[in-house]
Amino acid sequence: MDLLNTLLDKGLRRELPTRDEALAVLATSDDELLDVVAAAGKVRRQWFGRRVKLNYLVNLKSGLCPEDCSYCSQRLGSKAEILKYTWLKPDQASEAAAAGLAGGAKRVCLVASGRGPTDRDVDRVSDTIKAIKDQNEGVEVCACLGLLSDGQAERLRDAGADAYNHNLNTSESTYGDITTTHTYADRVDTVQKAHAAGLSACSGLIAGMGESDEDLVDVVYALRALDPDSVPVNFLIPFEGTPLAKEWNLTPQRCLRILAMVRFVCPDVEVRIAGGREVHLRTMQPLALHLANSIFLGDYLTSEGQAGKADLDMIADAGFEVEGTGEVTLPEHRTAAHAGCGSHAGADTGADADASAGCGSHAGGGCGPCGSAGQEPPRKEPVSEARTDLVSVRRRGAGTDLAPNA
Ligand code: SF4
């Protein structure tokens, strides 16, 4: 297929596909899906081999958020029956982190609900980072605390944070439909603050919120322009008790196309499958490892994932290997120059530099799947079945007396 040959060549050269090419990936048929995975898988292997990085989430503070992000079970007015608790103490967080690290994770992601941290909160998280780093040599720590004020990114970096996560989540044009208490520009600003402070920026998206293919392409191009080192791809978990509870829009095939598109647009960036992996990819999860080079081990912030051992078995069975603490995740050209996916010479970023994120969580036109992108009517996604049976609220790990899943 011309489209896939073009995308493969561009991915190996770290060249930005055209928007039509990215849209064409999302419009491929089920008959073409394995070819799409194979092409994007070659790009993945070029930059990341067969390594899978494991990340472990510790929810430092759960629920009771004043913001109204429609997708979030911790939002203002959420009726989801999630765990609600205030800040974990540093030793409690460190204990939870240790379980994930013992399970094979190399990065701990410290997340707190809320619009953004106070300076006191930054002090608390700094103490937690120190506790984790003192007890676990070589661990990477990422903080995800919401919108940052001036100077807070620098303080987190000085406390030992390696990275900061804040997702753009969706396109700028639809952001206001998802959240009204802060703006897309606020999110962009925080990613830029993290970047400017020398933290490794982590920023991604949520698919399945009713967005169009154009919205998905817009947000991924905006991410490329922001140049994060890692891009988490969340698949909406439609929690009962949230405004998006009825949005069951994703099929395993759709998730694979989305991951392939992200890989083609951000070829040398850590693409991480985040929340919703088990719910939406289901038995197709191992195929997704050919596209993403990173996943979360065990549970998510407010929902339970499959057993940590099942994650490890899946990686081994699919012929991949868990990335060790001594291995560098990113390709050498990115670690050397911190010149990421949005800054390659000659690359067309295809989006304004100011796109934005949240806590939480085309080549040569006409080269479509059938050689005719832009001429064929868009493929209709099959209606997805609601799988509420696969959504389970987290009842173990941080904030409970039960052992974490790792
Ligand atoms: S995504 Fe973050 S800011 Fe938005 S409601 Fe959830 S916890 Fe609050």
From TrEMBL:
One of its GO terms (molecular function) is biotin synthase activity. CDD domains: Radical_SAM (cd01335). Residues 367-406 are annotated as: Disordered. InterPro entries: Aldolase_TIM (IPR013785), BATS_dom (IPR010722), Biotin_synth/BioAB (IPR002684), Elp3/MiaA/NifB-like_rSAM (IPR006638), rSAM (IPR007197), rSAM_sf (IPR058240). It is an enzyme of class 2 (transferase). Its EC number is 2.8.1.6. Binds 1 [4Fe-4S] cluster. The cluster is coordinated with 3 cysteines and an exchangeable S-adenosyl-L-methionine. Residues 47-277 form the Radical SAM core domain. SMART domains: BATS, Elp3. Pathway: Cofactor biosynthesis; biotin biosynthesis; biotin from 7,8-diaminononanoate: step 2/2. It catalyses: (4R,5S)-dethiobiotin + (sulfur carrier)-SH + 2 reduced [2Fe-2S]-[ferredoxin] + 2 S-adenosyl-L-methionine = (sulfur carrier)-H + biotin + 2 5'-deoxyadenosine + 2 L-methionine + 2 oxidized [2Fe-2S]-[ferredoxin]. Residues 377-388 have a biased composition (Basic and acidic residues). Keywords: 2Fe-2S, 4Fe-4S, Biotin biosynthesis, Iron, Iron-sulfur, Metal-binding, S-adenosyl-L-methionine, Transferase. [2Fe-2S] cluster binds at C109, C142, C202, R272. [4Fe-4S] cluster binds at C65, C69, C72. Pfam families: BATS, Radical_SAM. Its cofactor is [4Fe-4S] cluster; [2Fe-2S] cluster. Belongs to the radical SAM superfamily. Biotin synthase family. HAMAP family: BioB. Homodimer. Catalyzes the conversion of dethiobiotin (DTB) to biotin by the insertion of a sulfur atom into dethiobiotin via a radical-based mechanism. This is Biotin synthase. It comes from Streptomyces tauricus. The lineage of its organism: Bacteria, Bacillati, Actinomycetota, Actinomycetes, Kitasatosporales. The gene is bioB.
